Structure to design on (451 residues):
C-alpha cells in the first residue's frame, strides 16, 4: 500500500508541517519581540543630549555633574561643551581630544566610531537661555548587544524551539505507537504460548488508525482460532463418547464369534456388520456436526419433517424402552418442516430419548410432543425421573457435566451437550426445567420454514 494512502503516514506528515509552522510563527514572534527590546535599549543620542540640557537648565553645573555620574554608571561618559569648553570634567583619549575642536566647530550632529568597539557622539542642544551647546558622549557600544550576539540568540531561539516541538511531537507519536505495538507484542507472545483466550483489548485500540485496526483484527483472529480449537476438542470428545459403546459391543460380538461354531458365528458377524454400519453413520454425523459448527463448506441443509424424525426416533428406542418397561407416548400435530440435517436431528432426539429412558423409573412413561409454537417447531421430551436440582439446570448442557442425581448412571455427560450443539447449528434453542409432578422436561425449538 502506498504510504500516501496511510492515515498514520498522513498524520505524521501533518504533524511535521504543524511543528515547522509553529517554529516559524513562534520563532518569528519571539525574534520580533527581541528586536524590539534591543531597539529599545539602543543609545538614543538625541534623547541623551536633551536630558543633559534639561539637567543643566534646571540646576546648572552641579545638576549636570549628577546627570553625568548617572550616565557613567551605565557605561557612558558624557557632558556638555560650551564655546569649546567642557562644563564638567570628561575623560577622552588624547587623539580624540585633539580632534574634538574640529568636530565641535562643524556644528552638526554626528556619531562616529574612531576605534573598534568605541563610539563618540556629538549632538547639538539649545538651552533655555538660547545658547547652543554640544553634547559629547563616549560609549563602548552602540547598543547593549552586538549584531553578532543578536544573530546568535535568534538562531538559538529557532534551534531550541525546533528541538522542543520536535521532541514533544516525537514523544507523543512514539508513545501513541509504542503502546498498541507493545500490547500486540504481548498478546502475540501469550497466544504463541498456548493462551488462546488472549486478546489485545482496549489498550491496543488506542493507537493510530492502522494499529487500532490491526489490534481489532488480531482479536477477531484470536477469537476465531479459540473457537475452532475448542470446537475441534469438543468434536473429539463427542466422537470418543459416541463411539465407546458401539466399539465395546463390536469387541464383544467378535469375541463371541471366535468362540462359536460356524452357524452362530455367521449371526454374530451380521451383528458386527450392523455395528460397523452404525459406527460409520455415527462418524459421518459427527463430521457433519463439525462442518456445520465450523462454518465449513460441504454441509448442505435440506427440508426435514420434525414430526417424521420424532416418529422414527420413537421406533428406534422402542426395544430399549420395552426392556425397562417404559411406555412411550407420542403426540404430533402434523408435518413441521425445518431446515437442517436429518441425521443430526435424529442423533439429538436419540440422545434425548436415551437420557429420558435412563433416568425414568421402571414401569414409568415418557411423553414426546411435536407442535408449532409462535412460528417455531417445538419438540418436548418429558420423563418422570428424579429431575435435576434447580441450581444445576443451567449447567445441564455443559460437556462432561453430571448432575448430583446422575452419580450412579452410566455416561460421560456429553449427550445433552451434543443435543445443544445440534440445536444451535440449526438456529434453534433448547431449555430444560423440572416438570410439575416430578421429572425433567426438555424443550427444543427450531425455526419453521414455509411451503
Amino acid at each position: 500500500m502506498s504510504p500516501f494512502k496511510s492515515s498514520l503516514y498522513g498524520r505524521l506528515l501533518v504533524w511535521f508541517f504543524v511543528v515547522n509552522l509553529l517554529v516559524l510563527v513562534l520563532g518569528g514572534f519571539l525574534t520580533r519581540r527581541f528586536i524590539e527590546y534591543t531597539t529599545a535599549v539602543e543609545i538614543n543620542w538625541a534623547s541623551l543630549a536633551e536630558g543633559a540640557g534639561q539637567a543643566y537648565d534646571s540646576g546648572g553645573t552641579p545638576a549636570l555633574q549628577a546627570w553625568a555620574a548617572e550616565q557613567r554608571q551605565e557605561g557612558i561618559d558624557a557632558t556638555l561643551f560650551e564655546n569649546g569648553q567642557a562644563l564638567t570634567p570628561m575623560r577622552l583619549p588624547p587623539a580624540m581630544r585633539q580632534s574634538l575642536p574640529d568636530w565641535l566647530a562643524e556644528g552638526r550632529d554626528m556619531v562616529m566610531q574612531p576605534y573598534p568597539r568605541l563610539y563618540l557622539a556629538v549632538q547639538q542642544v539649545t538651552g533655555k537661555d538660547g545658547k547652543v551647546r554640544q553634547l559629547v558622549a563616549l560609549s563602548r557600544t552602540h547598543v547593549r548587544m552586538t549584531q553578532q550576539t543578536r544573530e546568535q540568540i535568534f538562531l538559538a531561539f529557532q534551534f531550541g524551539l525546533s528541538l522542543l516541538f520536535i521532541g514533544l511531537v516525537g514523544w507523543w507519536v512514539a508513545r501513541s505507537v509504542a503502546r498498541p505495538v507493545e500490547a500486540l507484542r504481548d498478546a502475540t507472545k501469550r497466544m504463541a504460548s498456548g493462551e488462546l483466550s488472549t486478546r489485545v483489548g482496549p489498550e491496543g485500540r488506542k493507537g493510530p488508525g492502522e494499529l487500532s485496526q490491526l489490534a481489532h483484527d488480531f482479536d477477531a483472529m484470536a477469537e476465531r482460532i479459540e473457537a475452532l480449537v475448542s470446537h475441534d476438542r469438543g468434536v473429539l470428545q463427542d466422537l470418543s463418547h459416541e463411539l465407546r459403546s458401539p466399539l465395546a459391543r463390536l469387541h464383544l460380538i467378535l469375541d463371541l464369534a471366535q468362540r462359536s461354531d460356524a452357524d452362530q458365528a455367521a449371526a454374530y458377524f451380521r451383528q458386527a456388520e450392523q455395528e460397523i454400519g452404525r459406527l460409520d453413520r455415527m462418524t459421518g454425523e459427527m463430521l457433519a456436526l463439525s462442518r456445520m459448527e465450523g462454518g465449513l463448506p460441504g454441509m448442505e441443509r435440506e427440508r426435514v419433517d420434525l414430526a417424521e424424525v420424532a416418529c422414527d426416533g420413537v421406533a428406534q428406542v422402542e426395544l430399549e424402552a420395552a426392556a425397562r418397561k417404559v411406555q412411550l407416548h407420542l403426540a404430533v400435530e402434523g408435518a413441521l418442516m425445518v431446515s437442517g440435517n436429518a441425521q443430526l436431528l435424529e442423533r439429538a432426539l436419540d440422545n434425548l430419548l436415551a437420557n429420558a429412558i435412563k433416568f425414568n423409573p421402571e414401569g414409568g412413561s415418557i411423553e414426546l410432543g411435536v407442535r408449532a409454537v409462535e412460528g417455531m417447531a417445538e419438540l418436548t421430551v418429558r420423563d418422570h425421573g428424579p429431575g435435576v436440582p434447580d441450581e444445576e439446570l443451567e449447567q445441564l448442557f455443559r460437556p462432561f457435566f453430571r448432575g448430583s442425581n446422575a452419580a450412579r448412571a452410566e455416561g460421560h455427560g456429553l449427550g445433552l451437550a451434543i443435543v445443544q450443539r445440534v440445536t444451535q447449528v440449526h438456529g434453534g434453542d433448547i431449555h430444560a426445567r423440572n416438570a410439575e409432578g416430578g421429572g425433567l422436561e426438555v424443550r427444543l425449538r427450531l425455526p419453521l420454514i414455509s411451503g
In short: The chain has nine helices and twelve strands. Residues 209-258 form the longest helix (50 residues). The domain at 208-299 is CATH 1.10.287 (Helix Hairpins).
